Amino acid sequence: MNIQEYFARISYNESLKDADLQTLTVIFQHHIQAIPFENLSMHCGETIELDLQSTYDKIVRKKRGGWCLESNHLLFWALQELGYDVCILGGNSYNPAERGYTAEINHILLKVVIEGNSYIVDAGFGGAYQAWQPLMLISGKDQSQIPGIFRFTEDNGTWYFEKVKRKHYIPEQSVPFTDTPELGNIRKIYTFTLEPRHINDFQALNTYLQVSPDNILQKKSICSLQTAEGLYALVGWTFTKIYFVAKETKMIQKEKLCYYFTQETSNLLRYYFQSSSLQSFINYSLPSTVGNKKLS
């Protein structure tokens, strides 16, 4: 494994600097804009091995993406290589359908300490709830970023992470945007504690998520990638492009690719996501991509 090879994978061409917040922010942004959050391996009949070498080979050398266990583990390694004080934490995701947090840890995130200040760095949540910058670990402080306003609150050693949803773009609307969120616009994301974890603590979770028919990652294929202006997402066969405009979310394109799939569509998706995982997924789901292929 080689840090320069990782830099090439995320298109980071700047000269190495101190292990400071500015460098962390730039590397983090390159990471989330180059490595898709996706669960396509399990939908391609592949087994996901949770060890660093396998993750490195998959994401860096094979130019694929990964889910939180893979993407954040790779980022953890890279930050250690650069001299950051970083540790792994475990999170419990919020389930809107159950209106509660999962009983067992099902997410991995990172804590980085710089000059005595702690930051949460999470490259593995994906979609519209992905932060674009490291977040200072401080309770009750609104932290505004382009994707929205993020907030941590702490209660008796448990930290709660949530986001204020961005306002959807309505061309005719003349009412000015306000930073004061309505109650329904607050999205709970996950909880966590500051107990340091090791990647081996997540081996059972890695296996469970690949075999349990009840979790969302088994039910639906997901691939999302952050961009400089918004994000691309392919959930099932629905492809969405979202741009963040001022303080609003503008959905430029939402197209359900569920009737006919063409080679042109395949090329378009590969162009947007720049990931060989997507090609593997397409080939596995559609053995023949010659002409038009009707999806079931």
Shape: globular
The secondary-structure class comes to: alpha+beta
Report on the biggest sheet.
Answer: 9 strands, antiparallel
Count of individual beta strands? 17
**Helical percent range?**
25-40%
Mean pLDDT: 82
Beta strand %: 25-35%
Straight-line distance between termini? 41 Å
Radius of gyration, CA atoms, in whole angstroms: 19 Å
How are the SSEs ordered, and which strands pair?
Elements: H1 3-9, H2 21-34, E1 37-38, H3 52-61, H4 68-81, E2 85-95, E3 100-101, E4 107-114, E5 117-121, E6 135-136, E7 142-145, E8 148-155, E9 158-164, E10 167-168, E11 186-192, H5 203-211, H6 216-219, E12 222-226, E13 230-235, E14 238-245, E15 248-256, E16 260-261, H7 263-273, H8 276-285, E17 293-294
Parallel strand pairs: 10-15
Antiparallel strand pairs: 1-12, 2-3, 2-4, 2-11, 4-5, 5-6, 7-8, 8-9, 9-11, 12-13, 13-14, 14-15, 16-17
Provide an overview of this structure:
The protein has 296 residues and is of the alpha+beta class. The protein is 27% helix and 30% strand. The strands form 3 sheets. Strands 2, 3, 4, 5, 6, 7, 8, 9 and 11 form a 9-stranded antiparallel β-sheet that branches. A 6-stranded mixed β-sheet has the order 1-12-13-14-15-10. The longest helix is centred in the first third of the chain and has 14 residues, at 21-34. The chain is globular. The model is unreliable at 168-184 and 288-296 (pLDDT under 50).
